[in-house]
Write a structure and sequence with these properties.
mainly alpha
Length: 217
């Protein structure tokens, strides 16, 4: 291959890189995924402790015939789980913003450009729909379906947003969907699947993203 051909090839590669950067959001940090997974595992652990304490107290109230107390405990359990989910989500969003903003500055980009807005919109539509659907499940007392529904809608949101960011996000979303479908046929272990999907998979995905796209930099 002549020197002129090599120069043409390098020019074409540069053009491809510029087009990719202009159409895809590439400021996602793998570290934010790792921390989101850690937060999720902490939340799952706290939830398991609350659930264990609830089961013990529930049995005592049943023996005593205190039905009013059991209703109050169930309501309190719902509130605790919602607060834990909100806390995990809030910490994950703040951490994602911090690491992604830092990565964008290192790469010389603005964090909230038109590609970031596209990612957020395509991510938000399935997430909002899934959140409302989970509230409906909670309203009707179908608690066992909430964990698989969260995994399914989250996976669909990742797949929907993946066309505007790294292709790895699509595979991550597919794994979440598959895990949610498995959980739908094994409803008694929702907290376990929730921990695997939002905890372990996030850590594995984050570590993979960091190794592929950030370690060398």
């Amino acid at each position: 291959m002549t020197k002129e051909n090599l120069e043409h090839l390098e020019a074409i590669q540069d053009i491809r890189q510029m087009m990719k950067k202009s159409t895809r959001f590439l400021s996602l940090s793998g570290l934010s995924g790792i921390f989101a997974g850690i937060y999720a595992l902490i939340g799952a652990y706290v939830s398991s402790l609350i659930l264990s304490n609830f089961a013990h107290s529930y049995q005592e109230d049943i023996v005593r015939g205190n039905e009013m107390g059991t209703h109050e405990m169930v309501y309190g359990l719902y509130v605790d789980f919602i607060l834990i989910a909100i806390a995990v989500l809030a910490f994950s969003i703040v951490t994602a913003y911090y690491f992604s903003n830092r990565k964008a500055k290192k790469d010389g980009h603005h964090l909230f450009d038109h590609t970031a807005i596209r990612v957020l919109i395509n991510l938000a539509i399935p997430l909002v729909a899934g959140g409302v659907f989970c509230l409906a499940l909670l309203f009707h007392g179908a608690i066992v379906y909430i964990a698989p529904a969260m995994l399914l809608f989250y996976g669909l949101a990742l797949i929907n947003a993946s066309k505007y960011t790294y292709d790895d996000i699509r595979y991550f979303g597919i794994c979440e969907v598959v895990l949610g479908l498995i959980n739908a046929f094994n409803l008694g272990n929702g907290l376990l699947y929730w921990s695997l999907g939002f905890g372990v998979l996030h850590i594995v995905y984050g570590a993979t993203m960091w190794y592929k796209y950030e370690r060398k930099k």
